[in-house]
Amino acid sequence: MKRILVADDEMSIRLLYSEELREEGYEVLTAANGREALEIVEKEPLNLIILDIKMPEMSGIEVLRQIKEKHPNLPVLLSSAYSEYKQDFGTWASEEYLVKSSDLEDLKTAVRKHLKD
Fold first, then answer.
1. Which of the residues bear the PTM 4-aspartylphosphate (predicted)?
2. Inter-residue contact 76 to 49 (CB < 8 Å)
3. CA 12/CA 74 separation, integer angstroms
4. What is the pLDDT along the chain (117 residues), one digit of tens a residue?
5. What is the pTM of this model?
6. Which of 11, 67, 80, 103 minimizes the number of CB atoms within 10 Å of its CB?
7. Longest C-alpha distance within the chain, in Å?
């Protein structure tokens, strides 16, 4: 079973993404902030990460940079309510940039694409 980490400071988003992705047949771990996400990345084997950009303590862009330094082949999908971050050079290391929406079809399509399901 493919393992996905969902890192978002909003509990409602973590719950929604977890539920939807579990229904798709994935095992889902969650993190409430960037530091927690990095701890999980170091301890758990993962196949993909969905990472919020605006989080307290450490931005998703900083977390992305640290993940890619140690795990360059681990796919990371950035998820944000703000489309303007797409122009930030720091986001370009991610495999996809998704704007949060109540319709999760784009998210699920991106996950399938990067896990080659």
1. 52
2. yes
3. 25
4. 999 999 999 999 999 999 999 999 999 999 999 999 999 999 999 999 999 999 988 999 999 999 999 999 999 999 888 666 556 556 556 888 888 888 899 999 999 999 985
5. 0.91
6. 103
7. 34
Q: Quickly count: other Cβ atoms within 10 Å of residue 112's Cβ.
A: 13
Q: How is the chain split into domains, by residue range?
A: 3-115
Alpha helices in 7-104 (DSSP H): 11-23, 34-43, 60-70
Order of strands, sheet of 76-80, starting from the edge strand that comes earlier in the sequence: 27-31, 3-7, 48-52, 76-80, 96-99
* Residue located via tokens 């796919």: 75
Q: How is residue 57 written in tokens?
A: 């303590």
Degrees to nearest 5, angle at CA 7 with 81 and 17: 70
What's the DSSP call for residue 44? S
- Whether 83 and 91 have beta carbons less than 8 Å apart is answered as no
